[in-house]
Description:
Elements: E1 2-3, E2 18-24, E3 33-39, E4 47-55, H1 58-65, E5 88-95, E6 107-110, E7 113-115, H2 121-124, E8 135-136, E9 149-152, E10 158-160, H3 167-170, H4 176-187, E11 193-197, H5 201-212, E12 216-221, H6 227-233, E13 237-240, H7 244-250, E14 254-259, E15 276-284, H8 295-301, E16 304-307, H9 313-326, E17 332-336, H10 340-349, E18 355-359
Helix pairs in contact: 4-5
Amino acid sequence: TATSLSKPHICGPMSAPRTVKCWAAAKPKAALEEVCMEVPSLGPHGVELRVQFCGLCGSDVHLINSDGGYADFTGFAVGKPQVCGHEVIGIVTAVGEEVTHVKVGERAGIGWQNGACHECEWCKKGDEQLCASVKATCCEGNVGAFADYVRIQDGKFCFAIPEACDSAQTAPLLCGGQTVWTPLVQQTKDGDKVGILGLGGLGHMAIKFASALGREVTALSGSASKAEEAKALGAHAFVAHSDQSQLDALAGTLDFILVTLATTQTVDFSKFFPLLRPRGTICFVGMCPPITADVFTLGFTMNNITTSNTGGRKEMESMLAFCAEKGIGASVVLRPMDEVNACLAELESAKHAKRFVLTRD
Length: 361
């Protein structure tokens, strides 16, 4: 339940529920208000973080607006306010007795997923994101990290952050970064010619990763003005897909296209399929409306249409290690958490290649 901030902020021990200060939407599309909410006591596998940085993700907007398929996973659906925030880095303040991989006082992070059964075939393969019992950090009434503290009951989804990683630049990697990292490492290989479609928050991280992984990267955008920005991020080439002559020149050359677009507008993807080489793949990670494809034509070149969904714990750990080694982080804009409503409005109205990261004192 949410209460006014006129009530005291109670910080109980881990064996008891805790009252946290958080930014919550009381109903769909409502402005967020700072309130106090109670979160459950920690179990033996639980972890609590004091929030320092929290990335702002497109999924937060969809949850607050109760958009489409997101509606069933909101706090509203279970009679609670919606508290978002799932790209969080902070200091461990409490752990359950079974938690050994992170310790009180250490820096750690939590992403989109905060629980799985660890017993099913998918968990045993390291694909916890496919578990039928998957839990999400800020869905179904869970209080996310737009707060001073965040708790999860499955500490296996709390990750130690390598010393070399900058906290603010790493926060967006815990959802957005992992979302593009997973298909790039699972579906491409060294030397592949990779197209990145969309140069927003996901796309800019995809370019950085693909280039550092040794892929030959072509950035694809409808805006020719983004060419220099794309190349500065690591793209080897840039194609304005609004120019048919540029698309014609690229036809049949790409092994893989990663679609990072997040839009509610209908997009004609048929013009991108011809860019693929035989057996090439187009993979969707952005939230797009339903697509149509000419499977008869695609059959001649044996092209693949795939999707990808965040990743398992192994992808999170490999991504963080890679970022520490290569010095990679997201391009970010820092704002205090009490400016969250202004940031949400800007995120909805503007498309740029930087991620907002909310900070707490």
